[in-house]
Model the fold of this input.
Amino acid sequence: MTTTWIAAHRTAVINPHENFHLFEPRSFTDQTVRQTLRLAGGGEALRVRLSNRYGKEPLHIGGAHLAVRTHGSGIDPTSDTPLHFSGTDTVTIPVGEETVSDPIELPVSAGEELTVTLHLPGDTGPTTYSAVPYDIGYAAPGNQLSAEHLENAEELPTGHFLTGIDVLAPLGTRIAVAFGDSWIEGAFTTPGTDNSFPARLSRRLTHGWIVNQGISGNRLLTDEVGEHLLARLDHDALAVPGASHILIHIGLNDIGLPSAQSYPEPPTDRPTADDLITGLTTLADRIHTAGLIAIGSTLGPYEGTIYDGVDTPEGQTVRRQVNNWLLGPDHPFDAIVDIATAVADPTQPTRIRPEFNAGDGLHVNDGGAKAIADAVDVTLLDL
Done:
């Protein structure tokens, strides 16, 4: 059987040197970092991706291991396998670069939880990181690469260096990339349950799967949090091996973050509906030029959110205008997922239904993510 490398897990990353932070950057010195992920698809071998994309110094990794997770920071010691990089146990990733491990001949399946453990012997400086990893990670002092349970470990709510796993899958395997903001990434869904709406939707598919490249706080037109969507399209979506469809939710932070950052003063840089429509059109056109299918979505409701300045009459007008355009005949996408209707309160459609509200009025909980996934016509993802 002819095979090819396909993305089975992805995590988009953020520059720790940005001026605006929703999540606290951090560094490590002579520590072991252990992080778990869940595969969206399987294959007969795998390789691990690590990143120093935003580091300001070369990143020295004194050792890296892969294992099957048990619980917490625990691993099955019988599965503990060293990773190699061009045949060596250690690797130094240059500033702005990424690296891929040598392949490991290990058959894996969708849903398997694997743990990657890194020993970081020096001072990493502020790290390239992800906002909402699959699950809570752990950092512990010294070199504990093969420890069944890490000693004196602290929890890590953010992810660090680990950006994905590829699997060797049958030639012709195709996947979708979920691309956008916190509604894509799965903020406020339960860690370790894989309950983001893209993950839930992926489990409904009969062919292929979905990997997640969402960044909480991300915007379409403006950097921070993360590079804006148009800037990261090539790297984080079009270049993902196996990608044939791009599923998008973006725009709420373009509307709300300027007001939050300037609160209580009015913002000076909130985009208009025309600005967002132009950006979304450019996004769809670039996806089509790459030969991929672009699936857009309406912007989720957020009236009454607890975050100061985010909910404004002007912002609600922009959201309504953009959603009307997305639901009309003139948008450039191949299809639209009506996320807003899937989770809106029927009596107050600008608000999230109480049972789907994660508690902040801006994000959905596990039930809301399921409602979105269930509302998607899976024939749109003919992978």
